[in-house]
Write a structure and sequence with these properties.
- The complex is a heterodimer of chains A (about 120) and B (about 110).
- By secondary structure, chain A is mostly beta strands.
- Chain A is globular, with a radius of gyration of 13 Å.
- In chain A, the strands form two sheets. In chain A, strands 2, 4, 5, 6, 9, 10 and 11 form a seven-stranded mixed β-sheet that branches.
- In chain A, a hairpin with an 8-residue loop joins strand 9 and strand 10.
- Chain A is built from no helices and eleven strands.
- Chain B has about 110 residues and is mainly beta.
- Helix content of chain B is about 0%, strand content about 45%.
- Classes of the chains: A mainly beta (about 120), B mainly beta (about 110).
- Chains A and B meet through strand 4 and strand 5 of A and strand 3, strand 7 and strand 8 of B.
Amino acid sequence: HLQLQESGPGLVKPSGTLSLTCSVSGDSVGSTSSYWTWVRRPPGKGLDWIASIYYTGSTHSNPSLDNRVTMSVDESKNQFSLRLMSVTAADAAVYYCARRRPFKYYFDIWGQGILITVSS
Amino acid sequence: SFVLTQPPSVSVAPGMTAIITCGGNNLERKGVHWYQQKPGHAPVLVIYSHSDRPSGIPERFSGSTSGNTATLTISRAEAGDEADYSCQVWDSSRDQVVFGGGTKLTVL
């Protein structure tokens, strides 16, 4: 069955770039049956959708992130990635990767999450 | 942008029924989905498309939507139901996912 696992640095400096990877097992990241997504939860706040990508590279992201987000798919490693530029303290959160199916606008599979701290 | 409004907290006695609401414009015409999140764990989908339950989710969990309000109902509440519950929709006019602010359910 499909499983997702986040990996990344844990600590990012203010104004730096956060890079996270989600490893996919139990399915291919090049599958036509999944949209790959990043969601975060800042401490004390609600869930916040970041961006989603299809295997074709077609991406859509939360406009509140002011074009700081890029996503990519690496079929050779069966992974997808997130880059968030110019981070501030407001970007500190638990980051989750998740999956939704085409034409199904909910997330049925989630990774366990990774805590990201922003500090110098 | 589209906004989903949830009460910050709801309390329920064990064995009673918990009702968590989610307000937004014309929710009846969107698909409303609900997630349960316990501390230190990832969100779990408990209701999708207003009222459907994924496999493995107890029948005690049910959902409905009418007009501008979606409701998650948890019958015969248990201590293990204590969690944060979030609603979510897809805003097709902007191609973006929207989450509610979350409701902390306390079973006491």
